[in-house]
Design goal:
The complex is a heterodimer of chains A (about 650) and B (about 160).
Chain A: E1 6-11, E2 16-21, H1 24-30, H2 33-44, E3 58-62, E4 76-81, E5 88-93, H3 97-103, E6 108-112, E7 119-124, E8 127-132, H4 141-151, E9 158-161, H5 164-167, E10 175-177, E11 181-183, H6 188-194, E12 197-203, E13 208-209, H7 213-228, H8 233-239, H9 243-251, E14 255-256, E15 261-262, H10 265-271, E16 280-284, E17 294-298, E18 308-310, H11 314-323, H12 329-342, H13 346-361, H14 380-391, H15 396-400, H16 404-411, E19 421-422, E20 425-426, H17 438-445, H18 479-483, H19 489-495, E21 496-497, E22 502-503, H20 505-522, H21 528-531, H22 536-547, H23 553-573, H24 585-589, H25 599-613, E23 615-616, E24 621-622, H26 624-629
Parallel strand pairs in A: 1-6, 7-12
Antiparallel strand pairs in A: 1-2, 3-4, 3-6, 4-5, 7-8, 9-10, 9-12, 10-11, 14-15, 16-17, 17-18, 19-20, 21-22, 23-24
Helix pairs in contact in A: 2-20, 2-23, 7-22, 11-12, 11-13, 12-14, 17-20, 20-23, 20-25, 22-23
Chain B: E1 3-7, H1 17-27, E2 29-30, E3 37-42, E4 47-52, H2 60-64, E5 70-72, E6 79-81, H3 91-95, E7 101-103, E8 110-112, H4 121-125, E9 131-135, H5 139-158
Antiparallel strand pairs in B: 1-9, 3-4, 5-6, 7-8
Classes of the chains: A alpha+beta (about 650), B alpha+beta (about 160).
Amino acid sequence: MGYAGKILAIDLSNREVSEAEVTAQDCFEFIGGQGMNIKILLDQMDPLVDPLGEGNILSFGTGLLVGTLAPSASRTSISARSPLTGLLASTSSGHFWGAKLKSCGYDYLVVKGKSEEPVYIFIDNGKVNILDAKHLWGKDSWDTITTIRNELRNEEVEIACIGVGGEKLVKFAAVENGFYSGWARTGPGAVMGSKNLKAIALRGHEDIAVFDPKGFLDAVNEATNAVINHPTYKPWRQYGSVLAVDIYYDLGVLTGYNQSEEVGEDFIQTMGKENLLKYKKRSMACSGCPLACGQWVEIDEGPYKGLKLKAIDITPTLEFGARYGIRNLAAIAKATELFHRYGIDGTSAVAAVAFATELFQKGIISKSDTDGLELNWGDEALIFELMRKITYREGFGDLLADGPVEMARRIGKNSEQYLTTTRGLETTSRDPRCRFDVWSFGYLVNARGGDHMGVQSPIENLRKSAPEGEYSYEFSAPEKAVDRVDILDDWKEKTFDFKNGTVSIPHMAAWSQDLVNIVNALGTCIRPPILWSLGPTIYAKLVTTLTGIKFSPEDIRKAGERITNIQRIFNFKAGEKREDMRFAPKFYNARVKGRELDEDKVNQVLDKYFEVRNWDPRTALPKEEKLKELNLDKFAWSKVS
Amino acid sequence: MQKLILFDPDKCTGCRRCALACSLSKEGVFNSEKARIGVISFWDIGMHVPVFCQQCTKPLCADVCPVGAISRNKETGAMVLDANLCIGCKMCVIVCPLAGCLINPHSGTIIKCDLCGGDPQCVKYCEFGALEFVEADEVAYIKRKAGADKLAEALKRIA
């Protein structure tokens, strides 16, 4: 009950279609979404597989609550081995594709093998069709969606598809989710393209049954009230995610120009949240969401006049803005249109261009390397042209399309000193040298590499920022803020010392990481109004009343911890060792705001984190007793010396 | 005075909580294909339109029904379909311009909105004010006020 209970597996090499069961035990241990995805990957493939080869498996996993009234329960995860990082490809998206997969009667869609010719999958009320997509190959994602809806004569078909970026195996190609959403970071689109799979279209009318309808609705009401009454709700509804542009700027955690210098006032004046209101017409929501953080914007002036879309979001604003130097919020809307149409990850695309720009400005590469183009900061037309070149792997774009780590390797000349990648993935412009908190620390332990999403704290930004020139690993949180958050008592005790006003970053990071994993497995959202207001207690009620499987709050927490552990196991089996868990050299060697990171201090925090996790600090692997405690012995590995 | 569900596409976010609430309330499951309300999205202009039975004053569905299965509930003003009388001829589905009457995809039976007996769940679960349950004589004020507010904004700037 509450979930379909079925995995649909499609092998594109031989067109074999099969179903497997999702057991109550699976649900209890891994909940859903990314948790179960990783279990499927570990069961069925070698994590060392060639990411663009036939052996890589693309698993689409709906969150357990998706398709119900649980607030924001729309999110679906894609997991595979990433062609960009070699680690877990891990990305989630909301909108309606996941809810529709459940309406087709499946919780998971597992795509294996490789088709000889371009195809698309159409799941139609239980019937799986593998259809010719030669006529779709070469189309951008928006054309693809419109064409498929026309030829299926159905506007309500939900479609996940790749643009040309995925076809050209751009290492950070995205899988688009309708027009304005997508699974982008870590390059799942390239995996899909390598299988000659252009799109997955869904149409279905299956029920999601509810074990205890009255109990579930009570839990839904409790959860929804918590979300809409949270202090972050109103501002998030008004501004969407660009609200946080101002917050991060005020906190002083942003750096610019490929994280080489501080960001000045000109940034916040042109790219701050108030600029959004010029263009915002109304708000859009994903399936079942009471927040509607997606702002529909219409640009009525300037070079992008006439452009309308959902949405202007924070990460493109920070990256195209702070990292690359654009000072025109309307240009972010244009960038958004392009990265969706092209089907590439905007964050990684900017990171590649910004890295190249820094190298160009420092004379390490020149016009002879860049197809004669002069790489200057903040050049809108230039970066849009480079995004096209990346998508088509044209000239210089072919190098950019492999991402900064590979770029540095091919360019040589000691260019890796300018990288801002961490564990193969580009960090965002929230710079760890400005403030070493849960977010910054999270770059080191996040499942998908140096990204900001996996370890987000449910407490408003921790206080005690360090004075200029000094470095603080000490933070505090006001007791009131902590009281408002659902953190289990034993964890609260270990994490917060109210008498001395300190927070243990390793404990807070572990809690946050497990919580985000729970959220990704349930299919709810990490936007603050939800992430900060809901926790294991209400999640236990929601899941128990929906499925009839009994979860206590501790069971929920433990499932989150279990997922963190299999993420690490996957990454270890994919080749990541303890020594790889470090920032790019730039963060240790180059100063910004008078500081650089002290690698010894960072390692101390890491060691404490491993202690909290009960992992071996030499290998960063779960100790045997931790594996047993989480029932993960079946995923163990041969002994590491 | 009888109440009706007033909808505003400018406020609709396309979340479809209305359809989820409806199907759970009426069918005990989450399935938007069994909801008496649906949302049509216009992605080129960024607008979503909730579509549902308007409880017509001259209901074509009742007119065309050969067995008199659809009749007015005097208290709520809703046109209610009696499933025991319904023979599933689908004439009501054919004549309604809004899919006020629709076909349950699993059972093949006809379903329609009955305003939940006077406490419509779709309205309850809309967080955005896109659906409001109002008296008929409130509608003019609501619409005029919304229009006048926009004018007032402009007037403030030139006053």
